[in-house]
Design a protein that fits this description.
The chain has 8 helices and 5 strands; from the N terminus they run βαβαααβαβααβα. It is an alpha/beta fold. The chain has a 5-stranded parallel beta sheet with strand order 2-3-1-4-5, with helices on both faces. The two termini are about 15 Å apart. The model has no long low-confidence stretch (mean pLDDT about 90).
Length: about 180
């Protein structure tokens, strides 16, 4: 499993999809599944930038994992987003249920992220939600990356601000080098 992490707007989904296409791997995006499956008040909360409870998102990820052969390599985007979710994932790996081969951490400044998301124009890409996502990145994602490193998982930090193809080429080269 190759996990893509970073702040919203850093290019995780685009780069994850491009890597999956190049290597012929399944690409699983929890964000895409959430936008398809979540309705009602939960959808309104999600559009406001709020995260689902760990229990809800872990149950969703379990369903997503049931769609593919998780013993084979695949690309995961959008999970984990909390320490509890990371602990669950590391526990699955520790017990041989999954294998985390790489974590790709894409970085980008808040200025670049804000510009990209506003231009993208999705309903949940408004200033308050973007600020919420950047806070979440600092408070949750960065500590998760440290937890992965402490657990011996390889984390590759890559500058996501460069042109799309440049970032993609570095990711492919990094993954192929192991």
């Amino acid at each position: 499993m190759i996990i893509f992490m970073g702040v919203a707007g850093s290019g995780k989904s685009m780069q994850g999809r491009m890597l999956a296409d190049e290597l012929g791997l399944p690409w699983l995006s929890t964000g895409e599944f959430l936008r398809m499956l979540i309705a009602g008040e939960r959808r309104k909360e999600m559009l406001a930038g709020q995260l689902l409870a760990d229990k809800e998102i872990i149950a969703l990820v379990n369903k997503i994992f049931s769609l593919i052969d998780i013993k084979q390599e695949f690309v995961l985007d959008g999970f984990p987003r909390t320490i509890k979710q990371a602990d669950w994932l590391l526990s699955q790996a520790k017990h041989g249920q999954l294998k985390i081969t790489h974590v790709v951490h894409l970085t980008a400044t808040e200025e670049v992220v804000r510009s990209r998301l506003i231009e993208r124009g999705r309903q949940d890409d408004h200033h308050d939600a973007i600020s919420e996502r950047f806070s979440e990145y600092k408070e949750s994602i960065l500590p998760i990356l440290e937890e992965f490193k402490d657990a011996g998982v390889t984390v590759h930090t890559i500058n996501g601000e460069r042109p799309i193809q440049t970032v993609h080429s570095e990711i492919v080269q990094t993954i192929k080098q192991g």
